[in-house]
Amino acid sequence: MSPEPVLAVTDLHVHYRRVHALRGADLTVAPGETVGVIGETGSGKSTLARAIVGLVRPSAGRITIAGQEVAGLRGGGWRALRRRGVVQYVFQDPLRSLDPDLTVEESLLEPLLIQGRPRRAAAERVRELLERVRLDEDLLGRLPGELSGGQRQRVTIARALATEPRLVILDEPVSALDAANRVRALEFFQELRDAGTALVFISHDLGSVAGVADRIAVLFQGEIVEEGPTREVVNAPRHAYTRLLIGSAPTLRSARVARAEREELRELLRTNGGPA
Amino acid sequence: MVLRLASGRIAVGILGVIALLAVLGPIIAPHDPLEGGTDILASPSAAHWLGTDYLGRDVLSRLLDGSRVSVLGAVQVALIALVVGVVPGILSVYLGRPFEWVTLRLADTLIALPFLVFAVAVTALLGNGIPQAMFVVGIMVSPLFYRVARAATLSVARSPYVEAAILAGASVGWVVRKHVWVKVLPPIAVALANTTGVGFVVVSSLTFLGIGVQPPAPTWGGVLAADLGYLSFQPWAPLAPTALIMATVWACNLLADAIRDVTGEAGRALLNTRTVHAAKEAR
Amino acid sequence: MTLLSLRDVRIHDGVGDRDVVHGISFELAPGAAVGIVGESGSGKTLTCRAVLGILPEHFTVAGGTVSLEGRDLAGLSANEWTALRGSTVAAVFQDPASYLNPSLKVGNQIAEVVRVKTGLGRRAAKDRALELLDSVRLPARVYGLYPHELSGGMLQRVLIATAIAADPRVLIADEATTALDVTVQAEILDLLADLRDRTGLALVVVSHDLAVVAQLCDEVLVLRAGETVEQGPVEQILYEPRHEYTRLLIAEHARYGLDRVLELEHVA
After folding, report:
1. Is B246's pLDDT higher than 60?
2. What percent of chain A has pLDDT over 70?
3. What pLDDT, in 10s, does the model give residues B255-283?
4. B6 contacts B45 by C-beta, under 8 angstroms
5. Domain range annotation of chain B
6. What's the rounded Cα separation, in Å, for the pair B72 and B200?
7. Please, what's the b/e burial string for C216-254 (b: 16 or more CB within 10 A of its CB; e: otherwise)?
8. Residue in chain B nearest A79 by alpha carbon
9. By its UniProt entry, which PANTHER family does this protein fall under (chain B) (predicted)?
10. Mutation choice for A interface testing from C258, C259, C260, C266 by most A CBs within 10 A
């Protein structure tokens, strides 16, 4: 694959007090690649995402972002790295991830001003961003409460793109959207990938990731149990959990997959006590 | 912004008059507030609009002269509480566990401390005077500000938009300035306006007990205390100082409500729709 | 014989003074399953509530008829409704935890419903509750646990057990799997299908996700803003959608979902 990965996670462990939330995760993302991370409640997917951007401190393991080792960074080091704007993060809930007291313009300016860009240049960049996510300039003076759900999500995406990141982490980016906006958001992520931005797309729902991701990693009980090209993982899953996940995902064509097979897989996962 | 609400205008109007009294009161006082006369406990007359007290001093002059001390005292109380309470309140969320633990325990201790004992102890230690008295009161009400500021900060500190700012490389200072402060301000403004009101009452009652302002010097509370001593001779006399104190406290509370209405999210929406309506009507 | 029949049901919002559901009709035979698909605000939940006689204040059935086992439900008294709910028609909703008392053991809560609905004695009610737990595939030890000790999927099973306590003939599942993980959602859907096969329970499955409904139902209604935009057998909706909104719902799965990469022969 490409020479240097944008993101390389090696044997990452995270403990919350006694809980071993992440048990040795490995993940690499090449420039311009989209990797889907699938996991359900308690799988450790949010922990992985938050550890990558430094919101959670790993207890062991290495994280390399664009060639720089970050797992051991302290406050100042993280701030310097973040100001370069290499990695950005899109949160699940677009309403709560925008300050209710800041206008759209102020929210979009924020990462640019933190970078130390002059105000005028930043304001110009904000207009470019709006155009990129197809939002009207009239919205600049609005507060988040005065936007629709889809508009809000586009504002948070625009904010994440402000610093031209090489890697964007999308944490359940479409879960809070309705069908029409979900399709539009997914279309946009494809465009983003085509434009060369690497994406880590985190979701509980294999369905929303499968159409966008080049590769998929499946997290189960804090471990990546399966990883590979999307087509391979979806069509020839090796791990029982992946098989159950695919057999459980509501799809149109396979709407009537054998119930008995799912029951077998559940039994298998129960008796094996998870990954084996 | 507060002026866009009727209640805000009334509150600011009253407080403006009070502030004016604080500045001009001693100058426009018709008589020397300290000079007694033979005409004691007189009813209102052309010479003495509010009558005289038990030493024959002009009550109006004493109230006017005392307004500066009273107002400054109340403001001082509020400011001390603000600095001693709000700053640690916000920082307790960011400066780590030891600082958090110590400030929380201090706040609890202050709440548990009997007010008068503390006041007497401080005056014994630092001497009896206005600044000492205000200092005591300010410290005593600061836990309120600490709690309010801390609660407001906590509610925003873990929100995704603050995390988004941190992920953009924002420092603690930036986060507090840009996101936290705005959210902390409304509840603090409410607490501040309330405390200023309480400050008046407390300063007045301390003076009443003889802590703070020394007797001949007039304050609103002092005048009230003196009047109360001669209630049987002049049952109407406490009305004037009471009315002043009440009007000020009321205006403070009104202002607090107005600030809350205007700065809250709902308030902003309210004002926005009003502006929109007004703009539509103008067309 | 039809079990449940809605004919041109209109629901009126007394506050906004407008109709929010404009004429919904479907028939449900014993052991059959009807699916209702739509976004929030499409009127799907109000329709369910009308069938259960629990429309929110100010909302009324302004036209059409709802009949259950051939009996018109208009003008039932509160007592008659109470007798009907649970024993003929029952429901489960999205947030199972909010329907249970956090300070009582779930087993006792099921047993209480059994006693009220069937008049059984304490001992018999407990036996019946254990039976119900078994029929929703929960181990007997769940009887003595409190709601906070159970996962979302287990709580939803407990509520299904409660709902079927008095052997209703119709079960309404209103977004009953929305808040759950995909694998847990499949467990619950499998359980519903299983109950339908074993006991002939008829289902009304309500969801925003066409695929969820397609998995369980024979007939599908697609609602949008209180209007039925498309209605028909599942195969017709999936393979010959006529309305653009239905096409959008399908496109979401076909172009961006698992369907895009799934090669059918490899699965199952």
Report:
1. yes
2. 95
3. 877 777 776 554 454 445 444 444 444 44
4. no
5. 2-282
6. 10
7. bbebbbbbbebebbbbbebeebbeebeeebbeebbebbb
8. B169
9. OLIGOPEPTIDE TRANSPORT SYSTEM PERMEASE PROTEIN APPC (PTHR43386), PEPTIDE ABC TRANSPORTER PERMEASE PROTEIN (PTHR43386:SF25)
10. C258
What integer best gives the mean pLDDT of chain A?
Answer: 87
DSSP one-letter string for B41-85: TPPP-SS-TT-B-TT--BHHHHHHHHHHHHHHHHHHHHHHHIIII
By Cβ distance, the residue of A183, A235, A244 closest to C256 is A183
Q: Looking at the predicted structure, is the pLDDT value of residue A68 above 70?
A: yes
Residue positions counted in chain B: 283
| pLDDT tens per residue across span A105-162 | 999 999 999 999 999 999 999 999 999 888 999 999 999 988 888 899 899 999 999 9
C-beta of residue B248 within 8 angstroms of C-beta of residue B15:
yes
B157 and B180 in contact (C-beta within 8 Å)?
A: yes
Please, are residues C25 and C219 in contact by the beta-carbon 8 Å criterion? no
> Which CA distances in Å does B66 have to B204, B246, B261, C21, C196?
11, 15, 33, 69, 85
Domains in chain C and their CATH numbers? 26-57+70-81+172-268 (3.40.50.300), 97-167 (no CATH)
Average pLDDT over residues C37-54: 89
- Interchain pair A114, B159: CB under 8 A: no
If one looks up domain B2-282 in CATH, what number appears? 1.10.3720.10
Q: What single letter denotes the amino acid at residue A172?
A: E
Q: What is the ipTM of this complex?
A: 0.86
**Token digits of residue C168:** 């209703």
Q: What are the structure tokens assigned to C197, written together?
A: 């096969």
Phi/psi for A18 (5° steps) reads -90, -20
Whether residues A254 and C268 touch (CB distance < 8 A) is answered with yes
> Has residue B3 got a pLDDT over 80?
no
According to the model, what pLDDT value does residue A195 have? Answer: 87
Calculate the CA dihedral of residues C105, C109, C112, C114 and round it to 10 degrees.
-120
